[in-house]
């Protein structure tokens, strides 16, 4: 954002220089002609100055809008990529944890010869706990990412 402000400032400085140049030319042209011819030239020169200023202002506005849109698109893309990566990592971790828990519970059930109903209940409880933990982690990560992006955009 600081770089964008610097570019906008440079554009405005350029507009100021163009206006100064046009004004100086206007004064020089007017003083170099007689009064009647000078007034005709003055009207022409005022039109030229107005057209130049309007064109420069339009170009500056277009550049500013394009820069703001590009920055916004980049920020949105970064946020989306971070959220997708976090979700993929969380899903992989959940799948691995559930598979490990199921295998461990089945091994323990075979070794200890526990009733099948107890094994099913234990697996269901573990899966529910893991899913709750994953949902909480994903929510926290998304909130942190959004806060960081907002802080970076506002501060920058």
From TrEMBL:
Keywords: Membrane, Transmembrane, Transmembrane helix
Transmembrane segments: 41-67, 73-96, 103-123, 129-155
Protein name per UniProt: Uncharacterized protein
Organism this protein belongs to: Dreissena polymorpha
